[in-house]
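Give me the 3D structure for Odorant receptor.
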Amino acid sequence: MAVTSTVSPSLKIGLRLLGVWPGVPLSTFYWLTFMSSILILQYFQYQYIFEHFKISELPNLVDGLPATLDYTLTFLKLASLWIHRRVIHQILNAMDNDWCECIGVDQYLQVMRVKANISHFCSNAMLSFNAVAGVLYLLGEYAIRFLYLAENYNDTLRQLPIKVQLPFEINRSPTFELLVIVLFIHVMLNVCTVAVINALILTLVFHVSGQIDIICQEFRIICTKIPIHGSSTSTLGILIERHNKVILFSDNVEKLFSFIALMQIVWNTLVICCLGFIIMISVHNDTSVIVLVKTIFAYTAIMIEAFIICFAGEYLCLKSKSIADAAYESLWYDIPPDHVKIILFMIMRSQRGLAITAGRITNLSLEAFASIMKASVSYISVLHAMY
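Predicted structure for Odorant receptor (387 residues):
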């Protein structure tokens, strides 16, 4: 079946369940239900954090902090998406219009289908990886205890998948088993939500990069479409209109993800720091294999999450500047001088580049990702020295 949208079916289902896809009935109910459940769980998570907020219990504190911060980040992301849901609708409508314009031109359609296939693959890969990492993180400790500690297993040592401080006894059956199932399902929903949001930003960037590739293709053959003697500006006018659409689309993506990117950088730095610290202290711990297995997968997932959003900003910036290169490398000297001036203005605008910023403070780039990793390692060293 031919691809007709940059948004993959799995991503579309995720956005519908989150209540931000246009035209979904009971979207407000879905969003409020999930947000309310996050708030309830967050209350008990922070109860645990405040209960163990002391140097003597630093390993327990740092073990519970990553999941707590990750839930807080998800809550802020969903709140931001809901506030900017009209922007999401504008973006999705613009994507549909772009595909409609490409239907009649085979070379345009081929470019967009290539980008759509890449987008679909990345979306499915992120959902699959996050799901596997979530399962291993949640059930890894239970599996290891079952394999290696079965003889010494004690009901009083029962632990929930994530650290929470509940106001009632949890070690008795069937209360413990029910809590494990409920928390497992809820955490997996949170993990899939993170994957959906990450897949969304990559999908939007791949879509706009497809439109940029179409503009670059037009510049390569522009001299064959503009007569040497003539005043028609229809060809350049179409290019300018398409370039303006790309700029508007990028501005909407920036508006949608600016706050999310800022929170992502701050929170991921803290979470990577906590997980790295857990890995370091687990190496010197007799039961290090129990914590190490689940922590390494979580650490990898968080690093990939930070890398994805930084890569999206870097890729968008590089692709937008390629318009200037394509315009300069075109046979502009074979077209009328008044048309050359228009191309010159497009080159000047393209040299500024398009970007996704973190709270309009810094551009998302691979350099920003390197800064996150450097800061995390520095904080890990401080925590290890304190421990």
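Strands lie at 357-358, 362-363. Let me know if you want a second pass.
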